[in-house]
């Protein structure tokens, strides 16, 4: 998989918006940044070091929220979040804050299979708050969210940046980010 | 690191409890298929007693293979495998936790059900402990070997049948020594050698299968 002439550098507190039509490689680029795949050419570095050289360390910096949200329908909202936080190495101390951040407190004991698409998305987003990590890779995070919850997501991204985190967001324009760098992938995308 | 693996293990156990009906289907297949044998080969206690242990072992193997599709495919489709890759725990350790939880919901149930099935096919009283013992040693190995096939085919859409074809040849030694051990114990012969082989297969699978499975999962996600 090859991206042509894709180059960017992000500082702590930066946000990068990935724009482009369907199939131009936004998700593929996010997956490369997450370390799920390696670039055939070129390099991806974190503080000057190739992420491919230290995959285990890089994995612990990353939050990846893809189109598939990783939510298990048979578990309750709280059980899902507690599991995801523990899997990502975080303790249970931030669970309540994470539930509050995405207005999930009243849904905490509801099985995830009974959630609407937007509520499921909020649950997936809540793990960003439950397990702090410096690099957020978000693939169309605003999908299925209403206006109020999109605003919550935008606030969460801003708070993350204020704390020195970096966010890379693939979007079709439904999520607004303050002073972002913008990378528009062309129609050729990966080839 | 251990907390992450423990969290995965406990989540899988919780899911197994909530999907208990699905696990019972595997045991149901085990029992129903066995019940068909007297119809095929006749209900003579002599014949059933002679082939019973072998039939139970073969059906246990097939029942384990039946459950392989649930090992990674649902998590891959739900995006949960990607989260496993981002865990501070090595993927190999998470695979081991997943296989252990999966075995508790399938292989252990099969081993516990085997004495009842031994009575159905007129096996002698020794089979009531010999079969569970050998299945307890053998089915974890079958699950671990099966996890490699399940991971290799995760995301390919090829399903359980191809996974079964892929891992069946690797399961044959476990079947041979599991059955040898069970028959030796039932007939009062020395089963030490066969049991040691079963134990060795289990240790070998514990040492190697998580690495092969984790590598296959990384490929599936790349």
Could you give a short description of this structure?
The complex is a heterodimer of chains A (191) and B (222). With 191 residues, chain A is an alpha/beta fold. Chain A contains 6 helices and 7 strands.
Task: Supply the key terms.
heterodimer; A: 191 residues; alpha/beta; Rossmann fold; 5-stranded parallel β-sheet; 14% strand; B: 222 residues; mainly alpha; elongated
Structural class of chain A: alpha/beta
Overall tally of structural domains of chain A = 1
Helix content of chain A: 25-40%
Reading side by side through the largest sheet of chain A, how are the strands ordered? Answer: 4-5-6-1-7
The CATH class label of chain A is Alpha Beta
CATH topology of chain A: Rossmann fold
Beta strand count of chain B: 0
Q: Architecture of chain A in CATH?
A: 3-Layer(aba) Sandwich
Percentage of β-strand residues of chain B: under 5%
Shape of chain B: elongated
Distance between the termini of chain A: 6 Å
CATH superfamily of chain A: P-loop containing nucleotide triphosphate hydrolases
Q: Tally the helices of chain B: what do you get? A: 10
How much strand content do the residues of chain A show?
5-15%
Q: Give the helices and strands of chain B as they follow along the chain.
A: HHHHHHHHHH
3D structure, described in words:
Chain A has one domain (15-184): 3-Layer(aba) Sandwich (Rossmann fold), CATH 3.40.50.300. Helices cover 32% and strands 14% of the residues of chain A. Chain A contains six helices and seven strands, in the order βαββαβαααβαββ. In chain A, the strands form two sheets. A five-stranded parallel β-sheet of chain A has the order 4-5-6-1-7, sandwiched between helices. In chain A, α6 links the parallel β5 (135-139) and β6. The termini of chain A are close together. The model of chain A has no long low-confidence stretch (mean pLDDT 89). Chain B has 222 residues and is mostly helical. Chain B has one domain. Helices cover 86% and strands 0% of the residues of chain B. Chain B has ten helices and no strands. Chain B has helices at 2-18, 20-41, 45-66, 69-78, 80-85, 91-105, 107-120, 127-153, 159-187, 192-221. Chain B is elongated and about 55 Å long. Chains A and B meet through β4 and α3 of A and α1 and α5 of B.
């Amino acid at each position: 998989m090859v991206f042509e002439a894709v180059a960017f550098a992000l500082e702590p507190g930066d946000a990068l918006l990935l724009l482009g039509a369907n199939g131009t490689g936004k998700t593929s680029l996010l997956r490369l940044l997450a370390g799920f795949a390696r670039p055939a050419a070129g390099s991806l570095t974190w503080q000057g070091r190739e992420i491919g050289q230290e995959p285990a360390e890089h994995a612990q910096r990353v939050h990846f929220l893809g189109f598939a949200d990783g939510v298990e329908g048979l578990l309750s909202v709280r059980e899902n979040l507690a599991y995801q936080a523990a899997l990502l190495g975080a303790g249970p101390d931030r669970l309540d804050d994470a539930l509050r951040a995405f207005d999930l407190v009243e849904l905490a004991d509801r099985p995830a299979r009974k959630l609407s698409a937007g509520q499921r998305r909020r649950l997936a987003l809540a793990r960003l708050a439950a397990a702090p990590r410096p690099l957020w890779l978000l693939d169309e995070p605003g999908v299925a969210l209403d206006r109020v919850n999109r605003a919550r997501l935008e606030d969460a991204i801003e708070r993350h940046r204020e704390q020195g985190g970096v966010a890379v967001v693939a979007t079709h324009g439904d999520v607004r980010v303050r002073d972002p760098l913008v990378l528009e992938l062309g129609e050729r995308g990966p080839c | 690191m251990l907390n992450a693996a423990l969290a995965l293990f406990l989540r899988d156990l919780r899911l197994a409890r909530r999907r208990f009906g699905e696990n019972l289907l595997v045991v149901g297949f085990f029992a129903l298929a066995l019940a068909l044998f007297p119809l095929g080969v006749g209900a003579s206690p002599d014949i059933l007693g002679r082939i019973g242990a072998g039939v139970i072992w073969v059906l246990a193997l097939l029942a384990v293979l039946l459950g392989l599709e649930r090992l990674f495919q649902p998590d891959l489709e739900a995006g949960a495998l990607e989260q496993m890759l981002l865990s501070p725990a090595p993927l190999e350790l998470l695979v081991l936790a997943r296989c252990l939880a999966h075995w508790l919901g399938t292989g252990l149930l099969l081993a516990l059900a085997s004495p009842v099935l031994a009575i159905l096919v007129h096996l002698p009283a020794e089979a009531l402990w010999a079969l569970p013992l050998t299945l307890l040693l053998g089915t974890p190995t079958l699950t671990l070997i099966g996890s490699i096939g399940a991971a290799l085919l995760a995301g390919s859409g090829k399903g359980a049948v191809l996974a079964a074809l892929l891992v069946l040849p690797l399961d044959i030694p476990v079947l041979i020594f599991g059955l040898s051990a069970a028959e030796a114990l039932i007939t009062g012969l020395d089963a030490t050698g066969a049991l040691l082989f079963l134990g060795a297969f289990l240790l070998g699978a514990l040492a190697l299968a998580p690495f092969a499975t984790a590598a296959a999962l990384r490929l599936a996600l790349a």
